TrEMBL record:
Principal subcellular localisation of the protein: membrane
GO cellular component: membrane
Every Glycosyl transferase domain range: 113-349
Species: Polytomella parva
InterPro entries the UniProt entry points to: Exostosin, GT64_dom, Nucleotide-diphossugar_trans
Transmembrane segments: 52-71
Pfam families per record: Glyco_transf_64
Location(s), subcellular: Membrane
Family affiliation: Belongs to the glycosyltransferase 64 family.
Lineage: Eukaryota, Viridiplantae, Chlorophyta, core chlorophytes, Chlorophyceae
Keywords: Disulfide bond, Membrane, Transferase, Transmembrane, Transmembrane helix
Record-given protein name: Glycosyl transferase 64 domain-containing protein
Length: 380
């Protein structure tokens, strides 16, 4: 039954009610997700019809601001005389060009990658993530890093934490440490590993694109969230926000492993070769494992990471309705500044990070276009 929507939105509501009763009594048993999707879509359409002029003005203003911010001249990175920051006694430079081998045998599936999902006491996000990534063709398996004190889910008891399409395994860790996400995993069948947090929302096409970028340069990191560091006159380092990275300087030297592709060999290198003191600081501060991984990789490759552009990646840890996490604390950025400075002592007091400009103007639109995309899809 097709009901033509009226100007006041009554027709849309009638159609929604019609779909609801069809759902309730139909033998097809439409899912709650279908029902909620229709409800959100109709609500958004009704809202848009009533506010088309203000919304159009908002889009125009934001577009102008975005264009202006992306076209303004970028600052140059500060120059610090190396003689003012001599090497420290803790320096333990790793000069190898490749990480130590994860396993002696080759990977079973070179055309796929494994999701390594970091989660902690956010069951709803975990279930949604497993459901979402179970539909991606290129994913071989989903490995969940389980650091909680309670036992991990059991398929027969809580099937929502598993998938019929993908192999979902829970890797139980003895203690809650951010280093756990980079510990070697038994039974990895792929070379490529996509490290991600449970609050990331990435379409399958974006993951496939990241995999293709990584295969062109597989000893490097390929990630969706770039950041920049700068050297300070006092020989310390500062970790820059996304705004400063994209807008102020237009360069990046780090990609965050909350959404990044890397080679499985780096897991063992991080755990067994990277200075133990760095891992101890990460455990103590509950921060900076992503920075440590990037420094370690760049020290081996002597090159910047690869930024994977996306307009559709959503970070639930940001925005007006962000979920609570480590990065939401007030001390987050000051701790990351401290991490950069302290980690540098193990690399000759000079971080092996290599700033590089974004390749296109479109890349610098990313932080604002992602926000707009999230807003207009009801995700922020």
């Amino acid at each position: 039954m097709n009901i033509a929507p009226s100007d006041n939105g009554t027709g849309l509501r009638e159609r929604f009610n019609s779909l609801f009763w069809q759902k309730k009594y139909s033998k097809e048993k439409k899912t709650d997700d279908d029902y909620n999707l229709v409800k959100r879509s109709i609500t958004w359409i009704e809202f848009s019809k009533r506010n088309i002029v203000p919304l159009s003005m908002l889009v125009a203003v934001l577009s102008f601001i975005t264009l202006y911010l992306c076209l303004i001249p970028k600052k140059s990175l500060p120059y610090i005389d190396p003689l003012k920051c001599p090497p420290t006694k803790e320096a333990t430079l790793i000069t190898a060009s490749r990480p130590i081998q994860y396993e002696t045998s080759e990977a079973d599936h070179l055309d796929r990658f494994t999701i390594v999902l970091a989660t902690y006491k956010r069951p709803d996000l975990l279930k949604k993530a497993i459901k979402r990534y179970s539909t991606c063709k290129e994913i071989d398996a989903i490995r969940v890093i389980w650091s909680e004190s309670n036992t991990p889910p059991i398929r027969s008891v809580t099937p929502d934490y598993f998938s019929q399409n993908k192999d979902v395994r829970y890797d139980v860790k003895a203690k809650n440490s951010l280093n756990s996400r980079f510990e070697p995993l038994d039974g990895l069948r792929t070379e490529a590993v996509f490290s991600m947090d449970d609050d990331m929302d990435l379409p399958c096409d974006d993951l496939k694109h990241a995999f293709e970028v990584w295969k062109e340069d597989k000893w490097n990191l390929a990630g969706f969230y770039p950041r920049l560091h700068i050297h300070q006159p006092d020989c310390g380092y500062r970790y820059l926000t996304s705004y400063e990275t994209f807008i102020t300087y237009g360069q990046y030297s780090i990609v965050l492993t909350k959404a990044a592709m890397l080679h499985r060999d780096y897991f063992r290198h991080y755990t067994e070769v990277m200075p133990r003191q760095i891992r101890e600081m990460i455990t103590s501060w509950m921060n900076c494992e992503d920075i440590a991984m990037q420094i370690m990789v760049s020290n081996l490759t002597r090159s910047p990471p690869n930024f994977v552009h996306s307009h559709t990646a959503i970070d639930w840890g940001k925005g007006l309705l962000k979920v609570k996490g480590i990065s939401s604390s007030n001390a987050h950025f000051s701790r990351r500044n401290m991490c950069l400075t302290e980690f540098s002592r193990f690399y000759g007091n000079s971080l092996p990070l290599f700033p590089t400009p974004f390749e296109s103007l479109d890349d610098r639109f990313t932080p604002i276009t992602e926000t707009l995309y999230g807003f207009f899809n009801g995700r922020i």
